[in-house]
């Protein structure tokens, strides 16, 4: 278990993690995740990350009487019944998948295998997880996302309360945000109705007409618009990388740059950014970062505005073929990468220089 100290410091609930690294389901789970991801991104409620949610907030116009509502699905991964999860995936494959039905059937068979073969070792005893999905499985987040997407389509969106009162329903895996147009009592009744279900879904909630927190954001009302600020949990500690560590110089210098850019992205108002920057500067100084390094990172972030940092950075895809293997300590004992490309000279010669260069670098 990983203790959730942000829930309760004295008696924290546990987050069960079962690693799938090296397991019989590892590759199957990775394969499922590849084909589940496009289904997740096609869900109406899908939120990619904090930057995506900030963009969404910028487009929201608040109604007359409203409440900001955030919900969290308790113990989602371990509470999904296998039958419900398979039914949800079947539903979403039929509705959102663009592959052939034969391949969809194969994905379902593979998913059954992954769900029913999660063995793990604890205290020298082997166990089989019989309910839910292992949180350490590669496909677990997308599987849980699809399950809640099915729940939304079948049970949430058709309800009259949703259609008449809910605005801007958004979800990041098991974290929900929506705007309720109506009374507070009506909102509470709506959430209670969502909790009355046979699918082990239970929502904890927070309701406010002024501010709330979602992901790493604090959301405020300003006029009829929403603005954002950085949110840190009360139990958050100063866990920034210690500058005197043996990490490479560029890594240590990159940490302040990334952190200052993050608060510049999260803060809509300049005064919030400056306040968060002062706090971040103090935390870096506590971790022995030189003033010059911190000041340079701050000035770089100050040159940006929030809008420029919300533009997704495209990842370039190189056309070269890459030779990737697992690490082995016998590489230095004659098993050089170029030995594997001998005999395939015509195919691999254009990229052999890359292999030689990487080998020299260690």
Task: Give an account of the 3D structure.
By secondary structure, this protein is an alpha+beta fold. It is built from 14 helices and 11 strands. The strands form 4 sheets. It has a 4-stranded antiparallel beta sheet. A 3-stranded antiparallel beta sheet has the order 9-10-11, sandwiched between helices. A hairpin with a 2-residue loop joins strand 9 (211-214) and strand 10. Helix 1 crosses helix 5. The radius of gyration is 24 Å and the shape is globular.
Summarize this entry quickly.
It contains 14 helices and 11 strands. By secondary structure, the chain is an alpha+beta fold.
Question: Can you lay out the helices and strands and say which pair or pack?
Answer:
Blueprint: E1 2-3, E2 14-15, H1 26-41, H2 50-59, E3 67-73, H3 76-79, H4 82-96, H5 101-116, E4 119-122, E5 125-128, H6 140-156, H7 160-165, E6 166-172, E7 175-180, H8 184-195, E8 203-208, E9 211-214, E10 217-222, E11 225-230, H9 249-266, H10 270-286, H11 291-302, H12 306-309, H13 337-341, H14 345-361
Antiparallel strand pairs: 1-2, 3-7, 3-8, 4-5, 6-7, 9-10, 10-11
Descriptors for this entry?
362 residues; alpha+beta; single chain; 3-stranded antiparallel beta sheet; globular; 47% helix
How many extended strands? 11
Major β-sheet strand ordering = 6-7-3-8
Number of helices: 14
Order of helices and strands: EEHHEHHHEEHHEEHEEEEHHHHHH
Uncertain regions spanning at least 5 consecutive residues: 343-359
**Strand residue percentage:** 5-15%
